[in-house]
Amino acid sequence: MIRLFSILFSLWFLVACISPASNRSEVRPAHRFTPPVSPYLEPEKQLEYLRFHYWDHFDFADTVALRLADSTLMLRHFAHFAAICATAPRDRGPIDSLMRRAASSRPMLDYFAWMGAQILHDPESPLRSDEHYIPILEALLAAPYYNEYERLVPAFDLERARLNRLGTAANDFAFISRAGHKGSLYGVEAPQTLLFFSNPDCAMCASLKAELEAAEPITRAVAEGRLRVVVCYVDEELDVWRAKREPMPQGWLDVADSEGRIRGEGLYDLRAIPSLYLLDEKKRVVVKDAITASEVVPALL
Question: What predicted TM-score, i.e. pTM, was given to this entire model?
Answer without folding.
Answer: 0.84
